[in-house]
Amino acid sequence: MALFNKANCQAAMLALNMLGWIFTMVSMGLPNWRIWYIDSSPAPPWGLACVGMWKVCTYQPNSLQSRPMACHRYTYSDAYLPLDILLAQHLLLAASFLAFLGKRFIVMGLRRGYATQLQKDTTCDLFFTSRMLSITAGAFISIAVLCNYYAVINEEAIHFPPSFHIPYRPDRQEMGSTVYLAILAALLMLFSGLFTISFQQPPQQPNVSPISQV
C-alpha cells in the first residue's frame, strides 16, 4: 500500500509538470504580456497594443475594417527587440525544454519503479533529476516574468519597425493577462519539483527456506 501511495504522488507530480509545461507553451504564444494604451498618437493605430514575446498585436476598437486586430511576428534575431524580451525568449524556450525533459524522467522513473527493473538508487536518481529540471524551469519562467514586470513599471520603450505603425512608447502600459498564466506555470513547475516524493521500492523479502520437520 505504501508503494501504491507513493506512486500516486509521483503521478500527481507528473500531472503538475505536464500542466506547467502546457501553460508555458501557451504563454509563449500569447501576446498579452504587456498592454500598451495608445491614445495621443498623431497617426493610427489608436487604441491598444498587446506586446508579447514573439508577436505584437494592435487593436483598434473604432476601426471600420473587418479585422480590427493586426498582429506582427518577430524572432529573437530581430535587432529592434529590447534586452528584456530577448532574455525572456531564451528563458521561456529553455524552460519549456527542461520541463519536457523533467516529464520524461518522471515517466521513466514510474515505469521502472512499477516494473522493479532497476535498483532503488537508480530509480531515485531519475526522480531527483526530474526534480532539479522542474525547479530550474520554474525559476527560468519566474525570471522571464520579472523581466516583463520591470519593463512595465519602468515604462520602457520598444522601437518597432515603421511598418508596424506602433509608436515606440505608449501613453501608459500595464501587465497583461498572459503574465498570470506564466506565473501559474512557474508555480506548477516549482511545486512539481519541490514536492516530489522520493520513490521507494518495497524492501526485498529474504528467501527463507522451509525447515523440514523430522
Please, could you describe this protein's structure?
52% of the residues lie in helices and 11% in strands. The protein is α+β, with helices and mostly antiparallel strands and 214 residues long. The chain starts with a helix and ends in a 20-residue tail after the last helix. Keywords: Cell junction, Cell membrane, Membrane, Tight junction, Transmembrane, Transmembrane helix. Pfam families: Claudin_2.
Quick recap:
This protein is an alpha+beta fold and 214 residues long. Helix content is 52%, strand content 11%.
How much is the average pLDDT? 80
Q: What's the domain count? A: 1
Looking at the overall shape, the CATH architecture is Up-down Bundle
Strand order in space, largest sheet: 4-3-2-1-5
Estimated structural class: alpha+beta
| Helix count from the secondary structure assignment | 4
State the end-to-end distance. 38 Å
Structural shape: elongated
CATH topology: Butyryl-CoA Dehydrogenase, subunit A, domain 3
Radius of gyration: 24 Å
Question: What share of residues are in beta strands?
Answer: 5-15%
CATH class: Mainly Alpha
